[in-house]
Amino acid sequence: MAQPPLGPDEGEFEWPEGAVPADSGLPRVTRASALEADDDRAAGAGPPAPEREPRDEAERAREICLSLLAVRPRTRAELATALARRGISPEVAVRVLERYDEVGIIDDAAFAHAWVSSRHHSRGLARRALASELRQRGVDADTAGAALDDLDPDTEAATARALVDRKLRVARGAPEAVFRRLVGMLARKGYGPGLAIRVVKDAMAAQSAEAAEFADGVDADALADLESGDRAE
Q1: Is the pTM above the cut of 0.85?
Q2: Please, what is the average pLDDT of the chain?
Q3: Per-residue pLDDT tens digits for 83-102
Q4: Contact 115, 134 (CB under 8 A)
């Protein structure tokens, strides 16, 4: 008995047009009718899909919040801003966010503690810079302060020293220029001028005699000039 011929793809067969055996039990479908069916599906023909109930505003607000939270944690203020930009009314936004507060979906205190830990360890940011970032994200002063208390002065000083040591290994230039760059780097990360000066002096003193001699000559009077020069750069 002859086998049905293979189609254009290996291992896939199709009956020649009009050659479906009468006793096969299969419908007689021609290539033309199959193409017409494809066109009908693409055009949306066929039984209409059931219409979805229009979403209410609260449902839209919840979807917006959850989609944003799926990307990364957000503060309540960040979510409120996003809802306002998407046209959600203040009344609905407050109601949805209050509910998310109650069930712990949003938690500004937990966000602040996690933010301080993550940004300090990954970027070496100090309290001043971290406080600014939390404020920009709408965390209130009391909540931010509690999170910043996680970062004690000894930890902050140790992180500053590690940052300076890493930079010193590849630093080039005269000791004065290196000193200014390192103090400026710490200032941009939120370290106070007193700590920055002390840490850089100690690190350079351990590097070489030339660097130590320069560092020992830096006094408090030079601090204002160094700080103002770094801010202008």
Answers
A1: no
A2: 79
A3: 999 999 999 999 999 999 99
A4: yes
Tens digit of pLDDT for each residue in 12-50?
A: 334 344 444 444 444 444 444 443 444 344 334 445 444
Q: Compute φ and ψ for 216, nearest 5 degrees.
A: -65, -20
Domain-by-domain residue ranges, the chain? 57-106, 107-151, 152-233
- One-letter amino acid identity for 132? S
Encoding tokens for residue 46? 């066929």
Compute CA distances 97 → 91, 105, 111, 144, 163, whole Å: 10, 9, 15, 20, 40
**Residues whose CB falls within 8 Å of the CB of residue 124, separated by 6 or more in sequence, listed in order:** 159, 160, 162, 163, 189
- Pair of tokens at residue 195: 């700590």
Provide the 10 A C-beta neighbour count for residue 199.
Answer: 24
3-state secondary structure (DSSP) of residue 112: helix
CATH level 3 topology of 107-151: Arc Repressor Mutant, subunit A (1.10.10)
Q: What share of the chain is helix, strand, coil (3-state, %, to 5)?
A: 65, 0, 35
CB 171 within 8 A of CB 181: yes
| Other beta carbons within 10 Å of 151 | 17
Task: Dump the DSSP string for 134-152.
Answer: HHHTT--HHHHHHHHTTS-
Measured distance CA(227)–CA(217) in Å, rounded: 17
